[in-house]
UniProtKB/TrEMBL annotation:
Residues noted as binding [2Fe-2S] cluster in the record, renumbered to the chain: C80, C85, C121, C125
Keywords: 2Fe-2S, Iron, Iron-sulfur, Metal-binding, Ubiquinone
GO molecular function: 2 iron, 2 sulfur cluster binding; metal ion binding; NADH dehydrogenase activity
Requisite cofactors: [2Fe-2S] cluster
PANTHER family assigned: NADH DEHYDROGENASE [UBIQUINONE] FLAVOPROTEIN 2, MITOCHONDRIAL, NADH DEHYDROGENASE UBIQUINONE FLAVOPROTEIN 2, MITOCHONDRIAL
Family: Belongs to the complex I 24 kDa subunit family.
Cofactor binding description: Binds 1 [2Fe-2S] cluster.
NCBIfam families assigned to the protein according to its UniProt record, in alphabetical order: PRK07539.1-2
The species this protein was found in: Syntrophobacter fumaroxidans (strain DSM 10017 / MPOB)
InterPro entries: NuoE-like, NuoE_dom, NuoE_N, Thioredoxin-like_sf
UniProt protein name: NADH dehydrogenase (Ubiquinone), 24 kDa subunit
CDD domains cross-referenced by the UniProt entry: TRX_Fd_NuoE (cd03064)
Length: 163
């Protein structure tokens, strides 16, 4: 269950929209940040806040690549598998990520930190191959650049664990 303060803030946000549906994705993102993914409980809470049915929300959730209905790692890596990235080395990037993080596409690393998913074009075609991690976009990927990005995220997560 989400804290009352959070529920009130989300309810105000929903009420400020012409139609609650406009706020559905934002509300689900906030609940997802709270729960780690959109649990059934989170879906019911979102439905209550937005005045929508869970079925309506389910339809939206399945349409959006960034709403997760099952557990994911702290960092979700979406690697673009559209045409330009494909030509510019998608497979090389995917293979390296799988090897480095010890996972397969669609899976989560053994330490629970990373989930790897393919995604359609993220608008970084001029900087292909590209990927997105938790809504941050990275382009012109090389093994070295991927190592730097992942090392920073691992370091960041260790720092937070110590807090
Ligand atoms: S094709 Fe990959 S970002 Fe557009």
């Amino acid at each position: 269950m989400i804290p009352e303060e959070m529920r009130s803030a989300l309810a105000r946000k929903a009420a400020s929209a012409e139609s609650p549906r406009e706020q559905a994705i934002d509300v689900m993102f906030e609940l997802q940040d709270h729960y780690g993914y959109m649990t059934d409980e989170a879906m019911e809470e979102a439905a209550g806040i937005l005045g929508m049915t869970t079925l309506e929300l389910e339809e939206l959730a399945t349409f959006y690549d960034h709403i997760y209905r099952s557990p994911v790692g702290r960092y979700v890596i979406h690697v673009c598998d559209s045409a330009v990235c494909w030509m510019e080395g998608y497979q090389r990037i995917i293979d390296y990520l799988c090897q480095r993080l010890k996972l397969t596409v669609g899976g989560t690393s053994p330490d629970g930190l990373f989930t790897l998913l393919p995604v359609c074009c993220i608008g970084y075609c001029d900087r292909a191959p590209a990927m997105m991690i938790n809504r941050n976009v990275y382009g012109r990927l090389t093994r070295e650049k991927i190592d730097r990005i992942l090392d920073r995220l691992i370091e960041h997560s260790q720092f937070h664990e110590m807090e």
